[in-house]
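Homework help thread (please don't just give me the answer)

Our assignment gives two proteins as sequence + structure token strings and asks us to describe the second one. The first is just a warm-up. Here they are:
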Amino acid sequence: MHKLVVLYPKPADPDHFRDYYVTNHIPLVMNMPGLLAWRYSFDVAATTGEAPYFAVFEGDFADAAAMAAARASPQGQRMSADAANYATGGAVVIHYPVHDGTG
């Protein structure tokens, strides 16, 4: 499993961000080839102090190659270009392989 995470700092207009993200951006996300699961939240909190991020997105792919192919696809390119329409605070994009653990 490979995870793609997008961390969004606070935007200039949080209400616009929320509305645009749900109405316009998430439909683009749902068309990403190879995306196994996805989730997002606008309720980001820190365990102490103020959270450095306003929103977070997580996407799951089978492996790094599947994620790279999805991001390079026409759908992935449209999704990436769309961030300028709502993410006025920018975005931090990270990805990593996930290793499952047992209790």
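The one we have to describe:
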Amino acid sequence: MSKRDYYDVLGVPKSSTEKEIKKAYKRLAMKYHPDKNQGDAQAADKFKEIKEAYEILTDADKRGQYDDYGHAAFKNGGMGGGGGFGGFEDIFGGAFGGGGRSRGGFGGGFEDMFSQQRQPRPKKGQDRQFNLTVEFAEAINGCEQIIELPINGVNKKINVKVPAGIEDGEKIRFVGKGEAGAFGGPAGDLLIQINTRPHTHLKRDGNDLICPVTTDFVTAALGGEVEIQTLESRFKLKVPAGTQSGRKFRMKEKGVKSRKGMTGDLMVEIIVATPTNLNEKQKELLMEFKELA
């Protein structure tokens, strides 16, 4: 009985690359391997045939000889052990065979390999993110809030401890409090993004607090005092004569204490108000001042 063309055996064209040949061999070998077809003589013969074709076509020298002379190139020398079932491990990493020769002389482990392929890898659950809005003073001084969030289809109560000095947009991470993992994988994380409500008159610039204060032009020109209201205290600041609108006075370490322990400054910005709706007497005085200036 004449041998079938090796390319036909593997179901690939003559122009196939080595990678394509290996892929075809793997598919057929898994189908006809004796471990999967115990007692089936036809499957065993088929496996020998595809193994023989594979060994020839993946050897550059042998493939060249076969392409030139066909099966005649190997009539005298033979394949050297082509009748056995060895070599399958080269593709499948020893999944068939190994040390033992159970089940009719063919290495065990076929089911083991497929059971491993069927078992999906553990997958970490998705992270979940929610927003929590706090007051300006709560972000600076710290606070604690209990919030209820939907996680894994169940509403869960989470105790959120907002650290003092946290900045707007920062996130607090709760490891393992997110979505459940798949196939034994760990749960994802829960992220709480802290958003800060604007203050009525204070602004934050990093660890510094900006406090705009409006005063009349007479106080700015002659000097005097302006009242400052911060989050925790009220005090008066002396304004020197000739203070211009926009001038800032720095008060050391009166700002925000960061999470790293660094304290910023309080920046008092003077805004000089221009008078409106002046009466005739006030206008006369201003005109007189202008003439004298």
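TA reply:
I won't write it for you, but here's a hint about the kind of observation we're looking for: The chain has three domains: 6-72, 128-196, 203-273.
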